[in-house]
Amino acid sequence: MRASSRRFRGYTLVELLVVLAVMGLLAGLAMPLAEMTVQRERERELRRALWEIRDAIDGYRQACEQGVIVQARKGPPYPASLKELTEAHEDQRASHQGELRRFLRRVPRDPFAEPGLPAEQTWGLRSYASDADKPQAGNEVYDVYSRATGTGLNGIPLSQW
To answer: Residue 40 falls within a domain, yes or no?
Structure first.
């Protein structure tokens, strides 16, 4: 066989460079979309956690007002801490004597908080007496908010959710 009759098949250097350039362009376009997807998921987790904690706080308040549980201190019928929502409270109604009530299984963590912090410390706490625009901690937990400094995809600061 003659060497000249053999044809080598393959890609040229120019073809490989064009393919790599197209792949790089597509990857560059996909990165912002991937980052937005991650941000959207973290915001969804934040909304869910805020709803869960606020629902538990409202349940605690309602249970105190209806005499289902006894509040350990005087003042507004709100828990003294987020940890109190996970603790067992004895049901004071005669028909349910001895039953225990918990308002949260565990305190969810703020998905935007530093990973090393315990879940209870990832939230900003607002007392009943503090103003909504300037939340301050106090003797009870009336509301929670994210301590994150960023802004959500909807343009509202995460701390105002």
So the answer is: yes
Total domains in the fold of the chain: 1
Residue range 96-138, pLDDT digits in tens: 778 899 999 999 999 999 999 999 999 999 999 998 889 999 9
Q: How far is CA 124 from CA 128, 140, 158, in A?
A: 13, 12, 12
Residue 126 structural domain? 13-112+119-160
Question: Which candidate, 54, 43, 8, places its Cα nearest to that of 156?
Answer: 43
What is the reported pTM? 0.78
Identify the three-state secondary structure at position 124.
strand
Instruction: Give the angle subtended at the CA of 117 by the CAs of 48 and 142, to the nearest 5°.
Output: 50
